[in-house]
Amino acid sequence: MNSRRVLILSDGKPGHVNQSIAFVRHLGCDYDLLQVRFNSRWAKGLSYLFDRCRIFTRSLFSLDGIAADYSAIISAGSETYYANRVLTRELRTKSVAIMLPKGYRYDFDLIIAQNYDDPPARNHIISVPVNLSYVEPQGLVKPQAGRRPISLIIGGNSRHFKLDPTRLRKQLEMIFTFFPEHDFWVTTSRRTPPEIEAVLKEFDFSYTLYYSAVKTNPIPDFLQHSEYVFLTADSTSMISEAVSYGSACVEILPLAQPLVGADKFSRFLRQLLESGCLHLFDGQLGQACEKIDLSKLLDEVVL
Question: How many domains does the chain fold into?
Fold first, then answer.
């Protein structure tokens, strides 16, 4: 732990920026956040060549003013890695890449890479089984005294996944039969389509939060209080949070397509299945309550 100030470079994508912030918070550092962007698609393409040739110039990207006293520069995402390399050389500070910076040389001072990206074994690369997260309940919802709810965290469609309303309805019907005396909580995400919300409204939840109407995030509170948490299988970020915090058993609601394969997401799930961190809901309940301690994995990092 240390109290030095670091700089986080942002590409504007919450899934990337949140991992950088989580990393910094696990270390107990203060931070500034700075948006960075390539000047064009051609500039991004050149950045890979320039990095390999060890040419470091600000001419490829734009950013706001920057202070000169940081103990490290942190970045996640391909839009940020080259700027990180340029600025750390200018400011004579450490460079940290969150996620494996594919296409760039791996000679950052530190890389935090997910196992499913199959990172090389090097002293400066820390391999972790999930996305970095820092879960902090906000007290948005609390259970009745002496009761532990059953929570459902519903994602949405993406270029890789599509939720099936009929399939989800059948899964919910089975889940409700397992817990006739429990309270049920549900929240959706910014990607949840209206037809999925319509299915959820058919069921008797004691707490509902539809992101389309209320832009808040009760997931940390769900993880803190729940006996079981059911998540749709579409988001590594949501799953990573669920297996890294609280004591709830984690059940993944499979989508229409097979989940066992050679792709990155399937490798991610398979490793967590083998570790006892989650169970694929197949009409029966598992007891997958093992948790990953990210603070312990990052314990020896000093910036």
Answer: 2
> Looking at the structure, do residues 21 and 112 belong to the same domain, yes or no?
yes
Residue 14 sits in which domain range? 5-128
Encoded amino acid at 168, one letter: L
91 and 198: one domain? no
* Residue 234 vs residues 56, 76, 163, 223: alpha-carbon distances, Å: 37, 20, 9, 18
CATH of the domain at 244: 3.40.50.850
The pLDDT value given to residue 257: 56
Do 124 and 157 lie in a common domain? Answer: no
The predicted-structure confidence for 40-50, as pLDDT tens digits, reads as follows 999 999 999 99
Evaluate whether residue 13 is within a structural domain.
yes
Instruction: Give me the amino acid identity at 303.
Output: L
pLDDT at 158: 77
DSSP string, 250-289: EEEE--SS-S-SSSHHHHHHHHHHHTTS-EE-SSS-----
Say if residue 141's pLDDT is above 60: yes
Provide the whole-model pTM.
0.91
Cα 218 to chain centroid, rounded? 15
